[in-house]
Known about the structure:
- By secondary structure, this protein is mostly helical.
- The protein has one domain.
- The protein has twelve helices and no strands.
- It has helices spanning 2-38, 54-64, 75-91, 108-129, 133-164, 169-175, 181-184, 186-199, 211-214, 224-249, 257-276, 282-315.
- Helix 1 (2-38) packs across helix 10 (224-249) and helix 3 (75-91) packs parallel to helix 10 (224-249).
- It is globular and about 65 Å long.
- The termini are far apart.
- The mean pLDDT is 85.
- Its EC number is 7.1.1.2.
- It is found in: Mitochondrion inner membrane.
- Keywords: Membrane, Mitochondrion, Mitochondrion inner membrane, NAD, Transmembrane, Transmembrane helix, Transport, Ubiquinone.
- GO terms for molecular function: NADH dehydrogenase (ubiquinone) activity; NADH dehydrogenase activity.
Amino acid sequence: MYFLDLVGVYISMLFLVVCVLMGVAYLTLLERKVLGYIQIRKGPNKVGFWGILQPFSDAIKLFTKEQTFPYMANLNIYYFSPAVNLFISLLLWMCMPFFTVYLNFSMSILFFLAVSSLSVYTLMLAGWSSNSGYSLLGSLRAVAQTISYEVSLALIFMSFIYLILSMNVLDFVKVQKFIWLLFLMFPLSLMWIISGLAETNRTPFDFAEGESELVSGFNIEYSSGGFALIFLAEYSSILFMSMLCILIFMGGDIYSGWFFLKLTFLSFFWIWARGTLPRFRYDKLMYLAWKSFLPSSLMYMIFFFSFKVMLLSLFL
């Protein structure tokens, strides 16, 4: 019986990963279409009906191109960094509640924070191992940015955790049966979305890919398969952050169709921000993290902690 359960868990994991990768493929198509219409053009519309087969065409092209590598690169790290990056971004999805509840253990929030912090190392190693000044600068920027916003993400999470006294994602869903946490904690929710944009290196915080000064950022020396894996990891993280936003403060009704509509809208919001907002200045990004979000999230955390202690002392 135990063996069959284990087989079921692995099949569920594989099914989820395949679905995530399909979602990533069509998220790239959605992005190209939306950016096209924002810039008053069509976007991909030749491969298949309305360009519906474009992601598969892109994947075949990327994975069959010639693999080039810098002559002075540290080859082992250079080759493995994109694959490990994709593995970590897919591993994040294992804390998503599922019908089989396979990795939805009581510390799933802690699991998310621990695994997401590992992606910093792959970015750093990918930039360093290429042995290029541009890629090293891009990776240093990305690492500084990710570490800065992870602090505010963790503190914002602490406020939510103090409010519901649980680190299980499913408890966030149960607590929002009658009212979304978005309405109860509106400023924190906005801070979470902005921190999520910074954490995934998206516009207006895409300093790791500052084309004007860094050519292409930490992935400048990657081509064909390596570039495709980095690309997949980034879009998988965007989908995951959108999913987590819905679970934490937008109802999280994971077993209904509304969940997927909200997920589509939030993913669209990530793309909308890219098509609308200009790039931030780097010193302002750091100022926002350390002098705005850090004090605000700390104050909110202390407030919710005091509020919960007061409630418990009254009712216990």
